[in-house]
Write a structure and sequence with these properties.
Blueprint (H helix, E strand, L loop, with lengths): L2 E5 L8 H7 L3 H8 L2 E8 L2 E10 L4 E9 L8 H15 L4 E7 L3 H9 L3 E6 L2 H5 L5 E2 L2 E2 L3 E7 L5
Parallel strand pairs: 4-5
Antiparallel strand pairs: 1-2, 2-3, 3-4, 5-9, 6-9, 7-8
The protein binds coenzyme A (COA).
Length: 156
C-alpha cells in the first residue's frame, strides 16, 4: 500500500496520539502547533504518521515533530516524511531544514544523519530545563538538545 502525505484537514482532529510519541509534553506540543503546519501520512484512510513544520525565519524551516505509529515503524515511512519536508521547504523557498532531538534518541539521530542532516549545535541541559519529568531512552538520560540541519537543494 502506498503512503500518501497531505496537510491535516482543518476539520480533522489533531493526531495527539502520534505527536506524543515524539514529544511527551502536551504543553510543548500545544505551544508550537499554533504556529506550525501539520501534515499527516496515510495508508488508505488510516493515519500512520505525522510531521509538523514551522517557519523559523525567511531561510529556515524547522521540523517540530515527526512520528510514525509504532506498528508501522522501520518500514521507511520516517524517511518518506523527512523527504516530504524537504520538498515542502524547497517549494516554499527555504534554504535550510533543521530538527532538534535529545542526546538519548540514538535511532532518530541515526536516521537524520543517514538522510543528510549534520549536527550544527547543542543546547545544553534543554530537556532538564523545559520538561517536568526526566526522560530516559536507551538507558541514557536525555539532557541536551542536539540541533541538526540540512541545506535544501533541488536534487531528488
Ligand atoms: N533504532 C535504531 N535506528 C532507527 C530507529 C530505532 N528505533 N528508528 C529509525 N532508525 C533508523 C534506522 O537507521 C532506519 O533504517 P533501517 O530500518 O534500515 O535500519 C532508519 O532510521 C529509517 O527508518 P524509517 O523506517 O524510515 O523510520 P520510521 O518509519 O521508523 O520512523 C521515527 C522514524 C523516528 C519517526 C519513528 O521511529 C518514531 O515515530 N519514533 C517515535 C517518535 C520520535 O522519536 N520522533 C522523533 C522526534 S521529533
Amino acid at each position: 500500500m502506498r503512503l500518501h502525505i497531505e496537510p491535516l484537514d482543518e476539520k480533522s482532529p489533531v493526531p495527539f496520539e502520534l505527536l506524543t510519541l515524539a514529544d511527551p509534553s502536551k504543553k510543548q506540543i500545544d505551544a508550537y502547533l499554533s504556529d506550525s503546519t501539520c501534515f499527516v501520512a496515510k495508508l488508505a484512510s488510516e493515519t500512520v504518521g505525522v510531521i509538523v513544520l514551522a517557519k523559523i525565519n525567511t531561510t529556515t524551516l524547522e521540523i517540530k515533530n515527526i512520528a510514525v505509529k509504532a506498528s508501522e515503524q522501520r518500514k521507511g515511512f520516517g524517511k518518506c516524511l523527512l523527504r516530504y519536508a524537504e520538498k515542502v521547504g524547497i517549494t516554499q523557498g527555504y534554504k535550510k531544514l533543521v530538527i532538534g532531538k535529545g542526546n538519548s534518541s540514538i535511532g532518530q539521530l541515526a536516521l537524520y544523519q543517514k538522510e543528510g542532516f549534520e549536527i550544527s549545535s547543542i543546547e545544553k541541559d534543554f530537556f532538564l530545563h523545559h520538561y517536568e519529568h526526566p526522560i530516559v531512552e536507551n538507558g541514557i538520560l536525555c539532557k541536551h538538545k542536539i540541533i541538526l540541519e540540512k541545506a535544501l537543494k533541488e536534487s531528488r
